[in-house]
């Protein structure tokens, strides 16, 4: 059975959840400028869609 391609919205949702869990698990904080965080999350989402992995943008 072929794997269904992830939509951009699904990928973004996964990237946001991933980054929130990452911050919650360790002594980390998200960068204070929300726009920067969103750009990084968009890069992670796009990389997961294109390459299958959330490579850091």
Instruction: Characterize the quaternary organization of these chains.
Output: single chain
Number of strands: 0
Strand content: under 5%
Q: Report how far the terminal alpha carbons are from each other.
A: 30 Å
Rounded mean pLDDT is 92
Outline type: elongated
Classify the secondary structure makeup into a structural class: mainly alpha
What number of structural domains do the residues give?
Answer: 1
Low-confidence stretches: none
Question: Portion of residues in helices?
Answer: 55-70%
Order of helices and strands: HH
Rg measurement, Å? 12 Å
How many separate helices? 2
Q: Please outline the major beta sheet.
A: none
Give a description of the structure.
By secondary structure, this protein is mainly α. The protein has one domain (8-51). The chain has 2 helices and no strands. The protein is elongated, with a radius of gyration of 12 Å. The mean pLDDT is 92.
Summarize the structure.
The protein has 57 residues and is mostly helical. It has two helices and no strands.
């Amino acid at each position: 059975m072929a794997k269904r391609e992830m939509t951009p919205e699904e990928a973004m949702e996964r990237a946001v959840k991933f980054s929130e869990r990452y911050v919650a698990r360790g002594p980390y904080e998200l960068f204070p400028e929300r726009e920067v965080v969103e750009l990084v999350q968009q890069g992670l989402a796009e990389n997961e869609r294109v390459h299958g992995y959330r490579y850091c943008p």
